[in-house]
Design goal:
The chain is α+β, with helices and mostly antiparallel strands. 26% of the residues lie in helices and 24% in strands.
Length: 130
């Protein structure tokens, strides 16, 4: 299954009663695993958890540790980027050259690298003196 097909399918499972903004994400790990996630809102935290974080959590739960590629899809006028927190999570589990594809349900897409998505990401190298 392609990342686009997987993300499109899981997006339909999103729980977004407050924003009505459904997001799906799919990633392939360097071990070849396909992992998906969708956004989940709740009354106490209406912004909810993000699809990308869900896909990363599924990857970790499956025993994979590194992202080879990731795709995000939403019904938006332009390809929607991950929030800041998800950008940092992606950078934690992916090399700077890993492709990140952002898609709309209307077929628009934009592909960039993790480094393009989060320039100046905080890494372990910043803690070398700790």
């Amino acid at each position: 299954m392609t990342l686009l097909a997987a993300a499109t399918k899981v997006r339909e499972n999103a729980y977004a009663p407050y924003s009505r903004f459904k997001v799906g994400a799919a990633l392939r790990s360097t071990a070849g695993g396909l992992h998906v996630g969708c956004n989940v809102e709740n009354v106490a935290y209406p912004e909810g958890t993000c699809a990308e974080a869900g896909a990363i959590a599924a990857m970790i739960a499956a025993g994979d540790r590194r992202i080879a590629e990731i795709l995000v899809i939403a019904d938006s006028p332009a390809p929607v980027p991950p929030c800041g927190g998800c950008r940092q999570k992606i950078a934690e589990f992916a090399d700077p050259t890993v492709p990140v594809t952002l898609c709309t349900t209307d077929g628009a897409s934009l592909t960039m690298t993790v480094a393009d998505l989060l320039p100046g990401a905080f890494t372990l190298a910043h803690m070398d003196k700790a």
